[in-house]
Amino acid sequence: MISASALSKRFGSVHALHGVTFDIASGKTAAILGANGSGKSTLLRLIAGLARPSAGQIQIMGEDPRKRKASIGFLGHETYLYPYLTVIENLRFYSRLYRADEDRVGLTIETMGISSLAGSAVHTLSRGQTQRAAIARALLHDPDILLLDEPYTGLDRHGSAQLQTWITRPHRTTILVTHDADRANFADLTLELSDGRLL
Amino acid sequence: MKDLRSESRAKEIAPAMVMFALALVFLLSFTLPAVNTPEARDTTAAFLWASLLFAAITGFGQSASTEKEGSRIEGLLMAPVDPAALFMGKAISNFAYMIALEMVIVPVLLLFVDIAPGLLFPQIFAVAVAANIGMAAIGTLFGQASQYARARALILPLLAFPALLPVILGASKLTSSLLSSGTTASEARWFVLIGVYDLVFVTIGVVTFEFVISE
What we know:
Chain A has 199 residues and is α/β, with parallel strands linked by helices. Chain A has 5 helices and 9 strands, in the order βββαββαααβαβββ.
């Protein structure tokens, strides 16, 4: 269960989120929709524990998100990949940080269809190929909670169609941020933000 | 290891540090007194450590920016890893860059002052290794802290220079002693000061790194 209660976030005088409250049951897929600047990414960063709320609280299974790092997979606007390391070196590095099985690296690369790119330095990849590698990084430790911010960025039609297959597994709670409602039609529930408020 | 592997391909940090220090050593060597006096040896030691200090600051800033660019520091923060381990990993990389720098600069400077590099290099290198621990710890901590400031290139030296001063002073005194007498016996207390500084700043880094890199 992911619970937000009267969640607010301010950056100086700018209010990015105002009193957002919701519950997402375990194993469900939620889509956070909204226009640019509506607070979607800020909300996802709060859920991930990358930012602290100015007011209110966010809890994952009754705990602060920072205490649940091992169970969270996060894909942000940035890929977090090191450009001069190869795809497999990047994934091995992150697998060690998450203490994931070495087998997971090969398995994830295969699932994401990037086996042929495993030995390529990230800076040589196209945007779409890099995005696949970044999704692989987020999935590497087989997280129970998956947070994805605009995961379709850079993916071709084939990749976009496959995204649901890559990210879905039983008992995984997934939160997907997108500005395109059509791409979130497989979600169990939808949260729509406008000017930092939940509609 | 990922820093060193990445640097071996990108060549963004160590070559810049070496070239910067070489240019400084070359320029400063013109002003060295020709006569082999105690003052000349003090000046040579000071030039060496001033060059290493400026080059190190350049490298520390660049090393920290590799995590800040592309928000890669967030990828590390998201992982269930003790921030102290992140600090130690980054500090060890910076230590390695310093070692690479000194392997080139120390023999070159010794050649400029007409001392066979083989003669004093091991002793000066030992002083450098002791100083590098504190320098790498301070550079890692303040390098990362400065990444959140707008004028980061200005902030890093402003933060790091005062903290590095005792280490640089101690290393300079020990090097000067080596250049004059071939031994550090008369200046051994500076080794103690450097050792204490190393310990203090490694501890501060381990304890505070989490607060430096978090929001």
